[in-house]
Amino acid sequence: MSDFSYDIKESIAILSEKNGYTKELNLISYGGRPAKYDIRDWYTDEDGNKKMMKGITLSKEEAKELLEALSGEELED
Questions:
Q1: Hey, which of 20, 22, 34, 38 would disulfide with 28, CB 3.0 to 4.6 Å?
Q2: DSSP H or E stretch at residue 71
Q3: CB neighbourhood size of 38 (10 A)
């Protein structure tokens, strides 16, 4: 099994914070490949180490489609 590696190229936004978890939008490169948009939860432990939780990665084209889809929606509270 190969080693899993990632590099956060750009931290774009923290979407929410609760109980030590943050939901973040970042630009992340996995395994040295071109960076993709990444929306996921992160947990910071008591030692300050960030742990990656479940999330979703989007190509630039998929992120554009999502943005277009959301911009035409009336979002309710």
A1: 38
A2: helix 60-71
A3: 22
